[in-house]
Amino acid sequence: EWYGENGHRIVRRTSIVNGSIKLKLYPKYYSFLRDNYDEAEKKGEDDINRDIWRCGACRSVATKFCSKCESVYYCSARCQESHLKYHRSTCQRAKAGERRQRNELALGFWGGCGLGNLGNTCFMNSSVQCLSHAYPLTRYFLTNEYLDDINELNPLGTKGNLARAYDTVLKELYWSNQSYINPTQLKRSIALFQPRFAGYSQEDAPEFLAYLLDGLHEDLNRIKSKPYITLPDAEKYQNVRIAGAEAREADRRRNCSVLRDNFYGQYQSTCVCPTCKQVSVTFDPFNVLNVHLPMEVTRTIQIAVVKKNASDVWGIDPVRYGVKVSSTSSIENLIDGLSELCGISAENLALCDVHEFRICDVYIDMDEKVSKIHSNDLLVAYEVEDINTISTIVTHHAFLADGQIFPMGVPLYCTFHPEMTCLEVREYLWCQVRRMVREKGDQDVNSTRLVIRVVNNKGKPIDISGKTGGGKERDPTLGNVDPSLLPNSSSITLNDLLGEHCVDNYFFLHIEWIDGPWKGIFDSDAMMRCTNHSSLNANVYGLSLDQCLSNFTKPERLDEHNKYYCSKCKTHVQAMKTIKLCQLPNILVIHLKRFEFKSTFRRNKLDTFIDCPINGLDMSRHCRQKKGKDCNDIIIDEIPAVYDLFGVTNHYGRMGFGHYTACCRQWDDSGMGEDWSLFDDSNVTEIDETNVITPAAYVLFYRRRIFA
Predict the structure, then answer these.
(1) How far apart are the C-alpha atoms of 641 and 620, rounded to whole Å?
(2) What average pLDDT score do residues 456-482 get?
(3) How far apart are alpha carbons 135 and 86 in whole angstroms?
(4) For FRET with 392, which of 126, 267, 481, 512 sits at 20 to 30 Å CA-CA?
């Protein structure tokens, strides 16, 4: 009995073979199916492995279960003790007929809980979600092993408060039955010892993650009294491999924790003085690998082109092109490149940015740089007239029978001559939108069915009844007179209709697709349908994670603000610096530095798509040299440096005003899971593996297949 005479007992199941009681032990036999044990035993060992019962606390292989409810298995008494608070209510209500179902339910939603946003804390939520899927650290907390290592004497730590707060959040994430929890205690513990996270302003997720890892390490450092150690720079002719090993050994004498064992690696920094050529080699630990993104020479921008439809053609779908331009090109260069692909003169192309079914920006300044265009922007170019015309923006709205109204589809950007009549405007718009009507041969389906409303730039209807000669049209949905509808008249021109507004920059119209007249013949899918041009087959990604890592290890000249002090010249110099990876951690965290420094108050975000392998990231070429007598091979005992991705922190928007989400998948000693989940604060949904890596990927979490 583990909890005393009146506590929950834990037992092992036995079987009777030839009249003798046999106790099946791990690892050969794990299947403890209550009614089908003999059938499970007849299976091969591989089949039995599929029936393994997992520990209700840490997911390790379990051979014991609670004797009262038999619904949850455990691998040790410590796990059962740690899980007791969350298991007690289930154990008291358990019934014999529900035992197996309860066990599967308890383990099926492991780690699928969200974190509530306490006020701009999405940077913390996304980092904690990814870190909670690091199995060695999570198991370390869920089994209460961390209690043996809490260091309350460390002046660099939080006397164990941060570790206890993180433990509370982890157990709520994995063991509670709630859809989401509020990490209030963790936020308070971090803010108490790191004032920069005390408020509710947006912070950088990689900086928070680095502090959290350092804070947990100091709280759980097994070295109670750190010795004073001085480690000089490696000498010029000293074996670099030996120097690195000495630096690691010196670090272990001061820092020893489960964080140090799994999350910390080592890199070698070499500085060469440009004056005296003195070489300085130092070794430093890291927990987050900060990787700069190499500047792209070219990028491919996707643009959909909407052409003018002739009156004798029922309708043509927009065509999506891939325009390849330089990263320093202007909007004029972009439109010229598009003109060559689509065959429309550049003067007759209006480039617009579409967001939430509305045109939010029209690119007029031809000298503006394409760097303003983000990778997830929806760009649409419209074929227009450019001489003495009125620019008109047309949006689509759906009217349902229950009264609901909502925008939809790709808007239109048109140009009309002021002397065009309202009937001619109707006919032109009908040629543009009739591709959305299924019954193309029906002569009764024409422009007279269109409900076109004149609105202002905020979408509010404009009363035009006084400018139509008193003629008013009826709203087909309400049956009453509506003074904002565009008249179906061949005598009223736009000049007459707009009056003093004819000189305004834009004229706004709504096309209202009402459920009654268009029911059964309106094709809503056609509104977003596009044909892809062959130019889209070009490589639009540009960069891979392997290229970024290669750029990380290239020599670079230090700038004026980061000079190196040469001990021989006795002055600060712009040395040539090279960083090499010496030792890789079991859990590799890579920070893709997407924010480019421009000034003190300005950071440009690089929305470049980085092609990151989800499985099989080989880091060997970035941290080992070729075989030879001068080889400084740092791969310990030839353990393969192959990694699999298990977590991604995404950032959307710009610096200080963005939003963070996380994509994670479970893994343990038995291998890596296949199902990915998207954590958006309190919302948790499933996500396809193909959508995990996006231009928003900011921090990557990899685990080593074979731990060093």
Answers:
(1) 6
(2) 59
(3) 20
(4) 481
Reduce the secondary structure of 426-493 to three states and give it as a string: HHHHHHHHHHHECCCCCCCCCHHHCEEEEECCCCCECCCHHHCCCCCEECCCCCCEECCECCCCCCCE
Query: What distance in Å separates the CA atoms of residue 40 and residue 48, rounded to the nearest whole number?
Result: 6
Q: How open is the CA angle 159-127-549, to the nearest 5 degrees? A: 115
Q: What is the pLDDT of residue 407?
A: 81
Residues pairing with 593 in the sheet: 292
Active site amino acids: 122, 659
Please answer whether residues 650 and 698 qualify as being in contact, where contact means their C-beta atoms are separated by less than 8 angstroms.
yes
**What is the Cα–Cα distance from 219 to 516, expressed in whole angstroms?**
67
* Contact in structure between 266 and 295 (CB atoms under 8 Å): no
Residue 590 pLDDT: 95
CB 680 within 8 A of CB 617: no
| β-strands 289-292, 587-593 pairing | parallel
Least reliable range by pLDDT among 79-88, 194-203, 545-554: 79-88
Q: What is the pLDDT of residue 637?
A: 45
Q: Confidence class of residue 96 from pLDDT cuts 50, 70 and 90?
A: very low
SS3 content of the chain, % helix, strand, coil (to 5): 30, 30, 40
3-class DSSP assignment, residue 707: coil
- Flag whether pLDDT at 107 surpasses 60: no
Closest C-alpha to 690, from 615, 591, 578: 615
pLDDT in tens, 38-68: 444 444 434 434 345 677 767 677 767 676 6
**Contact indicator for 30, 38 with CB cutoff of 8 Å:** no
Q: Which residues pair with 350 in a beta bridge?
A: 382
Burial 399-422 (b: 16+ CB within 10 A, else e): beeeeeeeeebbbbbbbbeeebbb
Determine the pLDDT at residue 640.
83
Interacting residues of 245 by C-beta distance below 8 A, sequence separation 6+ = none
pLDDT range class, residue 5, cuts 50, 70, 90 = very low
Q: What is the dihedral of CA 187, 191, 197, 202, to 10 degrees?
A: 30
User: Tell me, what's the pLDDT at 127?
Assistant: 95
What is the edge-to-edge ordering of all strands in the sheet holding 576-583?
279-286, 265-272, 576-583, 556-557
Residue 549 neighbours by CB distance under 10 Å: 18
Assigned token pair, 206: 């990689």
pTM above 0.85, yes or no: no
Local structure of 643: helix, strand or coil: strand
Task: Report the 10 Å Cβ neighbour count for 62.
Answer: 24
Task: Please tell me the distance from the alpha carbon of residue 369 to that of residue 329, in angstroms, as a whole number.
Answer: 6
Question: Could you read off the pLDDT of 555-601 as tens digits, one per residue?
Answer: 888 888 888 888 888 899 888 998 888 889 999 999 999 887 655 55
Per-residue pLDDT, 415: 86
Residue 144 phi/psi, 5-degree rounding, is 65, 20
User: What is the token pair recorded at 138?
Assistant: 């999570």
CA distance 422 to 386: 20
Return d(Cα 18, Cα 287) in angstroms, integer: 57
What angle (nearest 5°) sits at the alpha carbon of residue 617, between those of residues 611 and 622?
Answer: 100
Q: What is the DSSP letter of 294?
A: P
The residues that bridge with 708 in the sheet, in sequence order, are: none
Mean pLDDT of the chain: 78
Cα–Cα dist 279/234, whole Å:
9
Q: What is the mean pLDDT of residues 445-469?
A: 74
One-letter amino acid identity for 107? L
**HSE of 209 in the Cβ direction (CA atoms, 13 Å)?**
30
The rounded Cα 150 to chain-centroid distance in angstroms is 33
